[in-house]
Amino acid sequence: MANEILKLERVCKAYNVGLPTETEVLHDIDLELDHGEFLALIGPSGSGKSTLLNIVGLLDQPTSGRLSIKGHDTASLGDAEITRLRGHTIGFVFQYHLLISAFTARENVMMPMLVDRGFASAEIEARADRLLAQVGLERFAGNLANNMSGGQQQRVAVARALAMGPDLVLADEPTGNLDTRSADAVFELMRQVNRVSGTSFLLVTHNMDLAQRCDRIIEVIDGRIRA
Amino acid sequence: MNRWLPIEWVMAVRFLREGRLQTIFIIGGISIGVGVIVFMSAMLAGLQANFIKRVLTSQPQIQLLSPDQIARLLRNSAGEIEDAIVQRPSQRVISIDQWPKIRAQMQAMPEVVTVSPTILGSVLAVRGDASRSVNLSGVEPDSYFKIVKVPDYIVAGEPRLTSEDIIIGTELAKDLGATVGDKLNVRAATGATRVLTISGIVDLGNKGVNQRVCYAALRTAQSLLGMIGGVTTIDITVADIYAAEEIAQRIQAANVVEADSWIKTNAQFFTAVQAQQNTNTLIRLFVGLSVAFGIAAVLIVSVIQRSKDIGILRAMGTSRAKILRVFLVQGGLLGFVGSLVGAAMGAFALVYWHSVARQADGTELFPLILERSLFIYTALLATGTGILAAMAPAIRAAKLDPVVAIRG
Known about the structure:
By secondary structure, chain A is an alpha/beta fold. Helices cover 35% and strands 26% of the residues of chain A. Chain B is built from 15 helices and ten strands. Chain B has a six-stranded mixed beta barrel, surrounded by four helices. In chain B, helix 2 (20-56) packs antiparallel against helix 11 (267-305), helix 11 packs across helix 13 (320-356) and helix 11 (267-305) packs parallel to helix 14 (372-399). Chain B starts with 6 loop residues before the first helix and ends with a helix. Classes of the chains: A alpha/beta, B alpha+beta.
């Protein structure tokens, strides 16, 4: 059985298809990510990294090519199945934290589980507290997102990404807005989760220092992969 | 976090709570709209009920009269031709033909509650040098007082009608300088005269009526008006007041009488009520529309403000249906809370207006009718309006592309 969690074969993405303004931003991308692998995706702005991440995260669809996650060919899945697969398999960490400001840190971590199960429960709260303890923020569990620093918010976002026990975490420049110390702490946290739980990470970053601490680096230039 | 509420409800409440100022303003708007609807509906119902009560306690619901007397045409025989103009004969006051039989028939009808034979005629009330032309009603007090609540309107004396008694209106008493216990000389056009004792003075709430109204015992009035054993009207009350016209038509079709229902004799009132109801419906419609647009506008802004939240929720596996429900619940909650506050405002305004607004005689302008059904209906309507108004923003939110939403 193949060990890959993610497999892209000749994936292309174009915008304004069929119009004179049609623009292809990804060209014949082939990519595999193994279970437990920590991969860095680097490249200049506008090279197609975020588009690739959105496709891998099932937030966007490729124009052509094949995308498999845990062996499921995503082209054959409907919207509800895609949503379910995304919720159960993939965790997201974004550059701008994107915590929901109406909820506390604990509730933000609980959110993926709440969305999945529909109601809060003691079990969900306990798991959220364990995850917050894992990222060193158990004392801030009751704080609203706006009452935390950028680094703390990003650690909450990491805890939230791990809430459903995903196989793959997609991190889109998670340290881009943090000072060096916080960036390092957040990266180390993800690296530790990767080592302890075997969760795969696909990290988009501009920070070469961080990229070099990953298992593998993939460079995207003008919509093509240069290994 | 509340463990009993579905996550959509939790999110809806939190989003509304976070956008506090926006929520307070829109609930204020909804409350004013609902308050206006509650106030207007309750006041209109009160005014209507008051009018109906006044009408139905001062007049019968169906009145049977002798049919109009008409000039009968001669049968055309050889050499006789019909005149081009047939003059309407003068209407003599005549008794209803076979009225005891008709009364018995009416009493046998299941829809009929009370039947009372009455004789009406004009007489002259004389006291000393003062005299007034008045309308004398000869009644059987036992049955008539169930139809026209004369005892309720007595302001002096008592509602007693022996063969020697007469009850007169307040204005007439004033004009004649008479009071309870005084004698009154009553003269009919036939020349008959009786001296009756004023047993009660009645105020029927209308100056013109109070100047002319007189009640005497049926037999006394019959002898005065020269119609021994006869009655001019049979007054009836029915169980369902709104079926009065239909019952009147049936009675008229089956008997040689003219039957007038209170609905027919107060046709203008019903036209006015209908016009008021139409106006009220239009006001409700436009208030409802403005409330709906208000809710929709606030929620559309909320969808734009929360697009990143929606994006991240979608990214973590929230279905479109759940996002849709979050905004529908917000619309419903806004409508429901607005309806509660609005109903309280409307009820308060109504109680205040009820205590301030008085008729010329100091009595209440309308009875205070605060029916539970009005509040339930209003709450349901406002909640439904809220959900409907939230439909467009909710669909918009559910359709948001998560990539675009997260990018903002």
